[in-house]
Design brief:
2 domains; 3 strands; GMP Synthetase, Chain A, domain 3; 165 residues; three-stranded mixed sheet; mainly alpha; elongated
């Protein structure tokens, strides 16, 4: 018995793949990937260099920033960013954005540091200050992270001072 073909239309491969991925339970991962790609366009170069979208879960986008100052500033811009992301996505994908500290841009990815290469040697005074600050932390993992951040920031500042001279 032959089937009747009623108004069969050609579908773009993107629609077929998208539907297939959603059936396999990968629709959320696809949405997350789309948001990660849209982030720089939605927020602009300056904010994108200081932030990184971390993950997306059930309509909430988690974004890591370089400092508490950026968390505070972006909190005031949250609604505009959310609206821009949803506009670029073509649908409401992000219902909430949560900002946290924890992003460390690499010097080669940070336009502000593009002309700086290498690292500046830390003085004994710098090393002692870092040890004093992190020695009081009870969590050894947190202490290592803070040490790394402090070393990177002191080194970056030393290199910037050399560049200005």
């Amino acid at each position: 018995m032959r089937r009747k073909h009623s108004h069969t239309r050609l579908q773009p491969i993107g629609e077929i793949l998208s539907a297939s991925l959603k059936k396999k339970g990968l629709g959320a991962k696809l949405e997350e990937n789309t948001l990660m790609k849209l982030w720089p366009e939605a927020v602009g170069e300056q904010i994108a260099s200081q932030t990184q979208p971390d993950r997306w879960r059930a309509g909430t986008l988690f974004v890591k920033t370089t400092s508490s100052i950026w968390v505070q500033q972006l909190h005031f811009m949250k609604e505009d960013i959310r609206n821009k992301l949803n506009e670029l996505a073509g649908k409401t994908v992000v219902r909430e954005i949560l900002f946290t500290i924890g992003y460390l841009p690499s010097p080669r990815n940070n336009p502000r540091n593009a002309s700086i290469s290498g690292t500046a040697a830390l003085s004994e005074r710098d090393k002692k200050m870092i040890a004093d600050c992190t020695g009081k932390l009870a969590d050894p993992e947190l202490a290592k992270i803070v040490q790394r951040v402090m070393k990177a920031e002191i080194s970056r500042r030393r290199l910037m001072e050399k560049k200005v001279r």
